[in-house]
Write a structure and sequence with these properties.
By secondary structure, the chain is an alpha/beta fold. The protein has two domains: 136 residues, Class I glutamine amidotransferase (GATase) domain (Rossmann fold, 3-Layer(aba) Sandwich); 147 residues, no CATH class. The chain is 27% helix and 27% strand. The chain is built from ten helices and 17 strands. The strands form three sheets. Strands 1-4-3-5-6-2-11-12-15 form a nine-stranded mixed β-sheet, with helices on both faces. The longest helix is centred in the N-terminal third of the chain and has 17 residues. It is globular, with a radius of gyration of 21 Å. The N and C termini lie far apart (71 Å). InterPro entries: Class_I_gatase-like (IPR029062), Peptidase_S51 (IPR005320), Peptidase_S51_cyanophycinase (IPR011811).
């Protein structure tokens, strides 16, 4: 019995060492489970990306990322939180290691170790949290450059909630806090509507702004408002929006998106200039084309169309601050 106790204690200590944080005295936190040595694998032939809408994680999306990565080192980055993703992803198998980097400041984002661990990734996932942290802490740092480098090498990338929000060319940065759809529609220049552009350049998201928790927080109205501001402010002649429901993910490979999880993915495209988009005036922006992917089938992000009957089409308008769909 005493031998059994000693063996059990040894195994527990060994497990703790394997998953121990390596961050003493550092501005970041780094947690690893598995063999954290750098794996060297062939570059993927096609770009792969996961847009996850927040809430409970979608197992199938992580399994897909692992499969597309070929294994190796799966890296999770975040500005706050824990290493909870490490055991969850590692238990799926197929990877050499899973590691989490908590990067809560510009000092941390400028640390060479942090950028190198990101560059070594065979798959990278940006956790949820607050996208304003990702803008304030990571923009213009080696972290941002390392993420972009991975995209250029077609390494599978993904994000959930705030982590998904920063993947489009246009980003609702939430620098002044969050805003609801009715508030945004009532005043498209509300100080809480802060937008950024060109934070990252992801494949097939060149005209896109994304939004998460789309169904449970009724965010279609604010997505339309973000698109109105992008066009009205001259950032682009045309804007596209992608809204992802909770517990749902869009898996994008070579421009083709398929849905997994319990909810839907909504695609919206602007039509010309807003009729009324002025400070302290309700938004009027009529007849935007929208499509909803709720079951099987796929969506072509390059041509902004579904060719296999996967989507249901509808029209969305903001009329004097009131959202209408038909």
């Amino acid at each position: 019995m005493e031998c059994l106790k000693r063996c059990t204690t040894f195994l527990l200590l060994l497990a703790a060492l394997v998953a121990a944080p390596a961050h003493a005295g550092k501005p970041y936190q780094h947690f690893v489970v598995g063999n954290g040595n750098n794996a060297v694998l062939p570059q993927p032939a096609k770009a792969a990306m996961v847009l996850m809408g927040g809430g409970p994680d979608v197992d199938a999306a992580f399994a897909w990322m692992i499969q597309k990565s070929g294994g190796g080192n799966f890296v999770v980055i975040r500005s706050r939180g824990t290493d909870a993703y490490n055991p969850y992803i590692y238990a799926m198998g197929g990877v050499q290691s899973v590691e989490t980097l908590v990067i809560p400041s510009r000092d941390a984002a400028n640390d060479p170790f942090v950028a190198q661990r990101i560059r070594n990734a065979e798959a990278l996932f940006i956790a949820g949290g607050d996208q304003s942290d990702y803008i304030n802490y990571w923009q213009g740092t080696p972290v941002q450059a390392a993420i972009q480098e991975l995209a250029g090498r077609r390494i599978p990338l993904g994000g959930t909630s705030a982590g998904m929000m920063v993947l489009g060319r246009f980003v609702y940065s939430a620098l002044n806090g969050s805003i609801t759809s009715p508030e945004a529609l009532a005043n498209p220049f509300d100080k809480r509507i802060t937008l950024a552009r060109d934070y990252l350049a992801m494949p097939d998201l060149g005209s896109v702004v994304t939004d998460a928790h789309f169904d449970t927080r009724e965010r279609l109205g604010r997505l339309v408002t973000f698109m109105a501001r992008i066009v009205n402010d001259g950032w682009a002649g045309m804007a596209r929006g992608i809204g992802v429901d909770v517990e749902t993910a869009l898996l994008v490979e070579d421009g083709k998106g398929t849905r997994v999880g319990l909810g839907a993915v909504t695609f919206v495209q602007s039509v010309g200039q807003p009729q009324v988009c002025k400070p302290r005036q309700p938004l009027t922006y009529l007849n935007l084309a929208a499509q909803r992917l709720a079951g099987g089938g796929s969506f072509d992000l390059r041509n902004w169309a579904s060719y296999d009957g996967g989507t249901t089409s509808f029209t969305v308008s903001a009329d004097k601050g009131v959202l209408l769909t038909r």
